[in-house]
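README, section 4: Worked example with a bound small molecule

Sections 1 through 3 covered apo chains. Here we extend the same pipeline to holo records, where the ligand is supplied as SMILES alongside the sequence. The molecule in this example is coenzyme A. Nothing else about the input changes; the structure line simply encodes the ligand pose together with the chain.
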Amino acid sequence: MSKLIYPIVSGRLLLRPVTESDAPSIQAYHSLEEVAKYQFWEPRSEEAVRGEVKKWTTHNQIDGEGELQLAVILKKSGELIGDVFFKITDATARQGTVGYTFNPAFQGKGYATEAANVMLKLGFETFDLHRVFARCDARNVPSWRLMERLGMRREAHFKEHALFKGGWDEEFYYAILQREWRQLTVT
Ligand SMILES: CC(C)(COP(=O)(O)OP(=O)(O)OC[C@H]1O[C@@H](n2cnc3c(N)ncnc32)[C@H](O)[C@@H]1OP(=O)(O)O)[C@@H](O)C(=O)NCCC(=O)NCCS
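The generated complex, written as structure tokens:
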């Protein structure tokens, strides 16, 4: 597997491994109800964030089926504005998944789309994945709009297939194949 070199740079952003000193910046948004609403976790306490961050500091290289959790930094100010997740779920079938969580103070500017695009590029160019997918709650409109901006297709709508935070779960799956992504990036 290729060794990743950090930071990974895009137009307005830097993506780099999470460090323990990032905990307060991450806590600032992981503690919010609106950020946790459609995640499999509740708003996180300082202690809970410190625990997550400690794990994430080691999630910066992939060897086989592993995962990345990277901090997203705004180039112009150096602020930590969000975090992105990437996981190779099946190394043999070359399948992977992405996720993203951003501070509401930095939403609505295309930063999450830009960071997720970096993860797709990583998945297809660096790790030669065949398909990248992502899931979201059907009510999480900003999340599925982002996936559609990336060129991902809605593959599934699971209706009332599980219980989530006290009610029925409605879930969308989106995906893009490497050849579809290459077609988009050349047009
Ligand atoms: C999901 C989430 C990351 C989406 O964030 P977002 O800010 O809407 O997404 P982007 O950064 O890509 O910004 C897109 C918006 O910025 C606008 N925008 C402004 N400048 C832009 C630019 N240069 N490029 C692209 N979009 C731009 C777009 O028009 C879009 O606005 P719209 O939705 O009103 O049309 C965010 O809502 C979030 O963190 N939610 C909480 C955590 C969560 O639920 N994560 C997903 C779990 S599945």
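What to look for in the output: Helices lie at 23-30, 33-36, 46-56, 111-126, 141-149, 178-186. The chain has six helices and ten strands.

Section 5 describes how to batch many such records.
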